[in-house]
Amino acid sequence: MKKFSCLIVDDEPLARKGLKEFVARNSSLNLVGEARNVAEAKDLLRYNEIDILFLDIEMPRISGIELLESKVADPGVIITSAYDRYAVKGFELDVQDYLLKPFTYERFSRAVEKAQDFIQHRQTGQQKQLNPIVYIRSEGVLHKLEIKDLFYVEGMQNYMICHTKTGRIIAHITMKALEEQLPKNQFVRTHKSYLVNAEHIQRIQGNEVIIDKNRIPISRNYKEEAVGKIIGDQLLNRS
Q1: 238/91: higher pLDDT
Q2: CATH code, domain carrying 145
Q3: What is the pLDDT of residue 204?
Q4: Same-domain status, 105 and 140
Q5: Were both Cys, which of 1, 96, 195, 199 would link to 153 (CB 3.0–4.6 Å)?
């Protein structure tokens, strides 16, 4: 059985003790370390490969949310908090589950399974897409969007513009978080700020992709991968 390495980050000794006991009961987990604050956590994340991060939110000086936003590493994240007010922010940052203290071992185990499932699918480059639908939050509204209707995504400074069959949806989500929700064999990065649905590409013209009269740039850094993925390596020399 594969062992998933994990790290506990919590300023409360009793909370760390309880989590360590739960980790020890779960044969699929291997505890790499524990941290009392974000500074200690960053050091452990930099020098260890961590699969699952058990993260408290309210800690001295720097919060768990700030650790997630720093992107010092990219493990699966399970938030463990005594407060539910951070739930929306947590899921905007693409956490796998949110455990409200106190929680049972059974609830802990379900969260671990969700994180492990996420990690395994990410590692194999597959997405569990039982329904061709993605949910996008915009201005407090959760939009249900069929993936086939999503043309391309344009990244701005602090938000994404999702260009769809019926219009635009402005979402406060990172490009990376949105990309991980979409089928990797269907969406391709043509530029650091653009993610394109290959099914809607009408043609490639020079260093641009044409979709529904829109011209999306192909940057030099992404050109070989993007064009190769869309139409095959044999066309690279013609563009």
Answers
A1: 91
A2: 2.40.50.1020
A3: 81
A4: no
A5: 195
pLDDT at 70: 82
- CA proximity to 39, closest of 6, 16, 72: 72
Can you read off the two tokens belonging to residue 183? 């089928």
Q: How would DSSP label each residue in 89-128?
A: HHHHTT-SEEEESS--HHHHHHHHHHHHHHHHHHHTT---
CA 119 – CA 89 distance, rounded (Å):
21
Over range 166-175, report the average pLDDT. 87
Helix (H, G, I), strand (E, B) or coil at 228: helix
What number of CA atoms fall less than 13 Å from residue 118's CA on the CB side? 21
Give the mean pLDDT of 217-230.
74
Please identify, among 123, 153, 184, the residue that sits at the C-terminal boundary of a domain.
123
Q: How many domains does the chain have?
A: 2
Q: Can you give the pTM of this predicted structure?
A: 0.54
29-35 and 4-9 strand pairing:
parallel
- Which two three-digit tokens encode residue 30? 């291997």
